[in-house]
Write a structure and sequence with these properties.
It is globular and about 70 Å long. α2 crosses α3 and α5 packs across α6. The N and C termini lie far apart (about 50 Å). A hairpin with a 5-residue loop joins β18 and β19. By secondary structure, the protein is α/β, with parallel strands linked by helices. The chain has twelve helices and 21 strands. The chain has two domains: about 325 residues, ANL, N-terminal domain (Rossmann fold, 3-Layer(aba) Sandwich); about 100 residues, GMP Synthetase, Chain A, domain 3 (2-Layer Sandwich). The longest helix is centred in the first third of the chain and has 22 residues. The protein is about 30% helix and about 20% strand. It binds zinc ion (ZN). The site of zinc ion has 6 residues, from loops.
Length: about 425
């Protein structure tokens, strides 16, 4: 099943032709209508006529989050506000907030992109979709809402939080698909059990679309084991519109619609493009956005790309699961550590539960100290102190072998660590306080 079969199955050559035509139009538009980009082009000694083919892409300057902050709120818009029909905004927890704007066409293209994605993971007009992403300035709720309605699915616009109500409505209204963060799905399934509702047996839920935070294959396996559903990954960022792409039913990467988005993977240090299959930072050029087009946007997300033909028949390139954020990277005793690597190790250990915290501190002697608190799984029973100590030692050794740095491990009882209703904040860095 396809939403837009003509576009989703174009040949690589046809896609390249569309990309090249749109890229040339884009550089002309931003040069003419965006003082920000005109200045950037001039600084780089570049004129739109220098961009003759896709091979010229590396000549173009990167655009970074800081550029959006520096031009807050509308400095990078290329249309007058009279053509803007909606704003979304980031919360600005790590600096000034960033504002994104959409024309009516931008909203239509956003919906088109997510409709293609939802159909690719099997969502249809027969589904009842519970949208448990936040509604409002965050793009998750409204993004899913409009696409699911456009498909003809029945939407439950419950937004994030209010977990008892989530479980009640899921059971009573017959939710078949849920969209939320993966950490919230784990919390929801535990909460449901406490209410006497076993999602696998007492509800019609069959699939979940999870994102807005990095997660691992092990988390996928645990969600599926606990709830009996099929879990799909979703990708998108507010700067690129919001949630835009999901895995198809092959679940071997996320198709990026190449007629709308031109992707590259670059080395985060040097900015040079890396080869297919090599890890690096995802860089996206928007080919159809009108209000806030972005040239070579540094997403900060670490992944790799595959462009061989997918079993689903779609020809658009795929990115693999996001391995971490370039800016989530922790530096512990000079070693680069991604929280996703820690999760990956922890969830492969059967005695360990889903919830964990990473605490960084600086010792009196000035050295960094990393403590990992992790819950014991509720499926195992370990009673003696020496067994706990052995488990802590085993976890610490596995972590050391992957991270190349020692962590202090504390195993705690199930249900004692903090739960998160939205994005999980599992890192406490006391070195910054
Ligand atoms: Zn596919």
């Amino acid at each position: 099943m396809y939403w837009n079969p003509a576009i989703e199955r174009l040949s690589a050559k046809e896609l390249e032709e569309i990309q090249e035509r749109r890229l040339k139009a884009l550089v002309n538009t931003v040069y003419d209508y965006s003082p920000f980009y005109r200045k950037k082009f001039k600084e780089a000694g570049l004129h739109p006529s220098d961009i003759k083919s896709l091979n010229d892409l590396p000549k173009l300057p990167f655009t970074k989050k800081q550029d959006l902050r520096d031009t807050y709120p509308f400095g990078m818009f290329t249309v007058p506000l009279s053509q803007v029909v909606r704003f979304h905004a980031s919360s600005g927890t790590t600096g000034k907030p960033t504002v994104v704007g959409y024309t009516a066409n931008d909203i239509r293209n956003w919906v088109e992109s997510l409709c293609r994605a939802l159909v690719s993971c099997g969502v249809s007009s027969d589904d009842i979709m519970q949208i448990a992403y936040g509604y409002g300035l965050f793009t998750g709720g409204l993004g899913f809402h409009y696409a699911a309605e456009r498909l003809g699915s029945t939407v439950i616009p419950i937004s994030a939080g209010n977990t008892a109500r989530q479980v009640e409505l899921m059971r009573d209204l017959g939710t078949t698909v849920i969209a939320c963060t993966p950490s919230y799905m784990l919390y929801l399934s535990e909460y449901a059990l406490e209410m006497g509702v076993d999602i696998a047996n007492d509800t019609k839920l069959r699939a979940g679309i999870f994102g807005a935070e990095p997660w691992s294959e092990e988390t996928r396996r645990r969600i599926e084991e606990k709830t009996g559903i099929t879990a799909y990954d979703v990708y998108g960022t507010s700067e690129l519109s919001g949630p835009l792409f999901t895995e198809c039913t092959e679940r071997n990467g996320i198709h990026i619609w190449a007629d709308m988005f031109l992707i590259e993977i670059v080395d985060p240090e040097t900015g040079e493009q890396v080869g297919e299959g090599e890890k690096g930072e995802l860089v996206v050029t928007t080919l159809t956005k009108e209000a806030l087009p972005l040239i070579r946007w540094r997403t900060g997300d670490i992944t790799y790309m595959e462009s061989d033909k997918c079993g689903c028949g779609r020809t658009h390139p795929r990115i693999m699961r996001i391995l971490g954020r370039a800016d989530d990277m922790l530096i512990v005793r000079g070693v680069n550590v991604f929280p996703s690597q820690i999760e990956h190790v922890l969830l492969q250990i059967p005695e360990v539960g889903e919830h964990y915290m990473i605490i960084l501190d600086r010792r009196e002697d000035g050295l960094d100290e990393m403590t990992i608190q992790v819950e014991l799984s509720d499926r195992v029973s370990i009673d003696t102190t020496s067994d706990i100590l052995n488990l802590e030692k085993k976890i610490a050794e596995k972590l050391k072998s992957v991270l190349n740095v020692w962590a202090k491990v504390e195993v705690v009882n199930p249900g004692t660590l903090q739960r998160f209703e939205g994005k999980a904040k599992r890192v406490i860095d006391k070195r910054k306080i």
